Amino acid sequence: MVKQTIQIFARVKPTVRKYQQGIYSVDEDEKSIPSLEIILPRDLADGFVNNKRESYRFRFQRIFDQDAKQDAIFESIAKPVAESVLAGYNGTIFAYGQTGSGKTFTITGGAEHYSDRGIIPRTLSYIFEQLHKDGSKMYTTHISYLEIYNECGYDLLDPRHEASSLEDLPKVTILEDPDQNIHLKNLSLHQATTEEEALNLLFLGDTNRMIAETPMNQASTRSHCIFTIHLTSKEPGSATVRHAKLHLVDLAGSERVAKTGVGGQLLTEAKYINLSLHYLEQVIIALSEKHRSHIPYRNSMMTSVLRDSLGGNCMTTMIATLSLEKRNIDESISTCRFAQRVALIKNEAVLNEEIDPKLVILRLQKELRELKDELAVITGEPRTEALTEAELLQLEKLLTSFLEDQDPESRLEVGADMRKVHHCFHHFKKLWNDKSLGKKSPISAEVTDQDQVTQDPFKGEEYKKLQDILKQRDNEINILVNMLKKEKKKSQDVLHLSSTDRSELRPSQGSPLLPGNPEDSQRTLLSSAPRQVQDIGTWQHRSSLLHKKAGMGEEMSLGRQEAFEIFKRDHADSITLEDNKQILKQRFSEAKTLGESVNEARSKIGHLKEEIAQGHMQQMDLGISENTAVPSTPDQREEKLRAQLEEEKRRYKTMFTHLKALKVEIEHLQLLMDKAKVKLQKEFEAWWAEEATNLQTNSPAVNSHDHTKSFPQTPESQHEQPWTPSNKRVPERPTSSIPLTGDNQTDSDILAFIKARQSILQKKCLGVSCLESQPSPSPSPTFPFNLFPRIQQA
Ligand SMILES: Nc1ncnc2c1ncn2[C@@H]1O[C@H](COP(=O)(O)OP(=O)(O)OP(=O)(O)O)[C@@H](O)[C@H]1O
To answer: What is the pLDDT of residues 8-32, one digit of tens each?
Structure first.
C-alpha cells in the first residue's frame, strides 16, 4: 500500500503582456517548498474592507511559470503517475481552474503544433512505449471517454452514434454495488492495441465533444471530461491479474461567483455556476477535515465517478491552472485556496490484484466434480452416464503409468468415481485374460494381424469397420484441406484488392513503404498488409464520420462552396492549417526518404544473408567432391560478410525506429488538421445559417417570393447604393439581375453567398485601392452582417 497526499502543481498561463508587473512572484528556492505569492494591486485592495491582506502565499509541489513547455509538464507531472499505473496502481490527474486558464491545453493539448500535445497523447505514447519494452507481462489496454454535463453522463466513444447534439450520445448512469463500488452503465470500453488506435479514440471523443456543443453548452467550459486508460497486466503462467485505471480529467471552468449588478457584490454559494464543482469542493472540505465520517460523494455524478481518486485507492495529482492577470486575481486566489485544501487529502493506493476468473472457474469446476463423485459413493447412487472420451484417455494414461511403475508401493488414484473404478477392473481383467491366453499358445504372439483377421471372423469384421472409419476420416481431412486452401486464397485476394484500392488513392506510390500523397495516405505508412487493411478501415470510418458530423455529407451548392472557400482562406486558423500542412509535407518527404533507405537496408540484409548461405553451399560441395571435411570455422570472407550484415542490421534498426517516430508525429499532425477542418466547417455552417436567417428576416426579395427581384453584385454599385436593413434599397434598385427561385432556403443561400462576396470584395477594396479613391470610407459601409468576426477583431 502507498499512502500519499494528493500532489498539487500550479501552472501559470502566458499572459498577453508578459509578466504583469507586481501581480505575482514565484519562489522556487531549492531549500524550501516552492511557493507562489499573489499580490493584490493597491487600487484593488483599497476597494475592500480596511484589514484586507495585500498578498497571499500558496505552496505547491512545483510551480510552472508562463514559459513552461508541454514536455516539461508531462515529465514532472504525468510521467510519475503513468509509471505507478504501469506498476498496477490507480492514478488520476485533474486540471482545475477558471475558464480560459489552460485546463484543456494542459490535459489534451493545443491543436496548432505537434509540440503542443498535452498530457493525454503524451501519456498514451509513453504507456505504449513501456508496454512494448516490457516482455515479461501480457498487457491489455482499454479506453473510455466520459463527459458530464448538468449531472448527466454521456459516452463520447459510442461508435453507433453519430452525434449532432449532446442528447444524441448514449446516456451514462451510475450503479453502485453492495460493496459501494461504482459501475458506469452504458459507458463503452474500447480496446486499443497500439498508440495509434488509442489516439484515434481520443480524436473521436474530442470530435464528438466539439460537434455536440452548443453556444448554451460551451462543452469545455461547462462540462467535465474524464478520459480513462484501463490497463490489465498478467505474468504468463500466473493466475493473478492486475487492473489499474488512469483518469485524465478536464474539469469545467471553476469561476465560482458571478458579479451581481448591485455594487459588484459576490453572489452566495447557492449561485454557483457549476453545481458539481460546488459538490466537489464539499467533498474536498469534508476529506480535509479530521474526524468527518460522512463524505458526500453521492451528491454529484462527478464526485461519485472520482470517488477513488479523492481520498481512496489512487495516486492523485491536481494541476491548478492560473491566468494571472489583474482582472483574474480573485479567481486565481480562489483556485490556489482550493488547491491548498486538496493537498491535505490522504489517499491509500493498493495494488488491484485478483485471481484470473477463468482459472478460478476451472478450479471450482474440478472441485465440484470431485465432490459429486464422493457424494455418489457415500449415498450409494453411483453416476450412470458413460465416461467421456477425454476422461477415458486420461484414465488409460494413469493405468499405463501405474502398471509400468516398478515401485510396489505405488497407488492408483482415480477418485471416488465408481465408473472409473469399474473401468480399471475391466482393464485388469482383460490384461489377465490376454496373459493367460498367451501362456496357452505361445505361437500366437508371432501371428500377423492379417492372419488374425482370417482366423477370427469376429476380429475380421472389426478390422473392416476400422478401415472404413479410416477412409471416412481421410475424406474429411481432404475436404477440410480444400476448404482451408479456398479461404486462404480468398483472404489473399482481399489483401491484394485493398492494396490495389490504396494504390489508386495514392497516385505516386512507389513501394509499400512509401505512400505518395501526404494529404490522404501517410496514416498507413510502414504498416504491413493486414494492418493496412485495418488502417484503411479506421481512416475511412473516421473520415466519413467527420464528414457526416460536419454536415459535409450533403452536397454543397456551388455558391455555398465558393463562400466556404473564401471563408476558409480568410479564417484565422488558415495560417496554422497551412503551416501544419507544410510541416506534414516535410515530415512525409523525410519519411519517404527514410522509407527508401529502410527498404534498401532490408534488401541489402537479404543479399548478405544469401551470399553467406551460398558460401556455405560452395564449401559443402567442395567437401563432398574432394572428400575432405568442411572447415568448422568461418573463413575471412564470411567473417567480413557477417560484420557487414551486423552493421546493416544496426542501420536498419536505427532507421526503422526513427521512421516509427516520424509515423507517430505524422499521424498526430493529421489528427490536428482533421480537427481544425471540422472546426472550420462547423464555424462556417454556423455563420452561414446565421446569415441565411438574417437575410430571411431582412430581405423583402425572399419574403415576397418575387422571382424577378435581384441583388447588387459589384462593389461599385454597393458604394453608390448602400444596402442596410433599414433602407433595404437593394431590391428596389437592381443593378444586375439574379433571379431568385421562390424557395426560401435556396434563395437565402444565394443571397448569403452574394453578401459574403460583396463583403470580401469590399474588404479588399477598403484594404487597397479604394482607400485612395474614396475620400472617407466608413469602416463597414454597406454590409449589415459580421461576416468574418475573427478578421474584424484582428
Ligand atoms: N500554457 C499555454 N501556452 C500557450 N497557450 C495556452 C496555454 N494555456 C492556455 N493557452 C491557450 O489559451 C486558450 C484557453 O485555454 P484552454 O481552452 O485550455 O482553457 P480552459 O481552462 O480549458 O478553458 P475552459 O474552461 O473554457 O475549457 C487556448 O487558446 C489555449 O491554446
So the answer is: 999 999 987 665 567 888 988 777 8
Q: Does ligand 1 lie within 6 Å of residue 321's CB atom?
A: yes
- Sign of the C-alpha dihedral computed for residues 398, 399, 400 and 402 taken in this order: positive
Residues 316 and 373 grouped into a single domain: no
Smallest Cα–Cα separation from 754: which of 768, 770, 740?
Answer: 740
Mutating to test ligand 1, I would choose from 63, 103, 105 the residue with most ligand atoms within 8 A of its C-beta, which is 105
pLDDT in tens, 398-419: 888 888 888 888 888 888 788 8
Distance, CA 105 to ligand 1 centroid (Å)?
A: 5
Q: Which of 217-221, 322-326, 391-395 is least confident?
A: 217-221
Domain extent, residue 785, equals 699-793
Claim to verify: residue 653 and residue 727 sit in the same structural domain: no
- Atom number in ligand 1 closest to CA 110: 31
Q: Is it the case that residue 720 has pLDDT exceeding 50? A: no
120: which 3 cell numbers? 493525454
Out of 652, 669, 686, a domain closes at 669
Q: Are residues 164 and 309 in the same domain?
A: yes
ipTM topping 0.95: yes
Q: Which carries the bigger pLDDT value, residue 193 or residue 762?
A: 193
Ligand 1 neighbourhood includes 253 CB (under 6 angstroms): yes
Ligand 1 proximity of 103 Cβ (cutoff 6 Å): yes
**Is residue 678 one of the residues assigned to a domain?**
no
Q: Where are the alpha helices (DSSP H) in 380-456?
A: 389-404, 418-440, 449-455
Q: Is position 496 within any domain? A: no
Indicate the range of 100-104, 112-116, 163-167, 719-723 predicted with least confidence: 719-723
Our answer on whether the CB atom of 352 is closer than 6 Å to any ligand 1 atom is: no
Quote the cell numbers at residue 142: 482499454
Residues 111, 238, single domain; the answer is yes
At residue 741, the 3 state secondary structure works out as coil
Residue 599 located in a structural domain: yes
Clarify whether residues 19 and 100 are in a common domain: yes
State if residue 110 touches ligand 1 by the CB under 6 angstroms criterion. yes
Pair 589, 644 in one domain? yes
pLDDT in tens, 294-318: 888 888 899 999 988 888 889 999 9
pLDDT recorded at residue 169: 86
DSSP secondary structure code for residue 105 in this structure:
H
Print the SS3 string covering 467-529: HHHHHHHHHHHHHHHHHHHHHHHHHHHHHHHHHHHHHHHCCCCCECCECCCHHHHHHHCCCCH
Which amino acid is located at 214 in the chain?
Answer: T
Q: Is the CB of 74 under 6 A from ligand 1?
A: no
Predicted TM-score of the model (pTM):
0.60
Assess whether 350 and 404 both reside in one domain. no
Write the pLDDT tens digit of every residue in 198-216: 999 999 898 888 876 655 4
